[in-house]
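#onboarding

Welcome to the new folks! Below is a worked example of what a typical request in this channel looks like: someone posts a single protein sequence, and someone else replies with the predicted structure as tokens. Don't worry about understanding the tokens yet, we'll cover that in week two.

Example request:
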Amino acid sequence: MMGVQRLRNPICVRPSVAILALWFAAGAGGCGGAETGSTDSVEAVALVSAVPVREGTLRSEAFAYGYVAPRPGSETTVSVPFESHVVSVNTVAGAHVSTGTSLVTVEPSADARTQIRQAKSVFDAERVRNESARHRYDLGLATVDDLAGSQSALDQARQRWGQLTGWDSTRAVRAGSAGTVDSIAVVAGQLVPPGQMLIRIVRTGRRLVRLGVDPAVAERLSRGQSVEIESLDSNGRHGTVSGSLRDIGQKINAVTRLVEVTVDVDSESNLWLSERVRARLDLMHEPGLIVPRSAVLPDGDRHFLFTVVSGKARRHEVSVIAETDSEALVDGDIAAGDSVLFVGNYEVHDGTRIRIDTGSERSGTVSNSQPKSGAAE
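Example response:
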């Protein structure tokens, strides 16, 4: 009877496909099923980009809307010192007028003509009294004071008479300076009291812009800073007009909840009165920590970012103070020089092992600050 023969030189027996799959899954290998021991699973490494946090002042911008208005002291009113009838109005609101342009034609009213006749009578009477005082003075019947009093009364009567005679000759009321007719307060045939405004004129080149801005924006503005003005009504006719911030209001409008600021514009801007405009305002912020805007990630109503510490991502809660299209001014438990992730940060979490793509720093915000010791390069 043949016994079981032991093989002198054992050979490797090819395992089945199923067994191979189990070996690979368990990290086993070798022939004859020899166990080589298991290994730890390989930890994923994220490829990211980082730049140093830098300290500095962030400049951002805001837009505000408003309209063109007369500058204080640039308005003049046209009137006559006697009651009159308006014969005709010779201009329209918005018209440009030159010095001496006829604006309104008027004539003295019946009451004004009565005053003229009365002034003529007073003048004639004072002239007779003065002649009598001189005759009595020559005869020694009047003193020097009597003569001086008579002469003073005559001078006053003459002045009044001359003034009212001027009324009678007044027909065309003319512009005293070049400008734009802002408003007209009368119509033809109207009876106008003495001194009432007939027309208001804004002198040429005397313009400013009134803007409504958010109170938070107003706090970041300073008098004298540059402002760029763009018309919303002229289809680019004026282009961009430069101006400087004149005044910042200290009161919030009860209706709009905005603060009014005024801007002086170039006298050659040719902006129209009441023209609607948009202004670009540069905002200055306190110095702080600046990071790329893409480094800041949202978490509900909060924000966070990742820095690199010992080759791993570390999460930090931050507050965004201000931002531009490319940068953000933040506050949190980070410091200037920390390496902050700005590319690939959506793919990591706190503690993720990372590898920094050193060539990508050129696409981020580069500063002279160096990473802190211990931060991954």
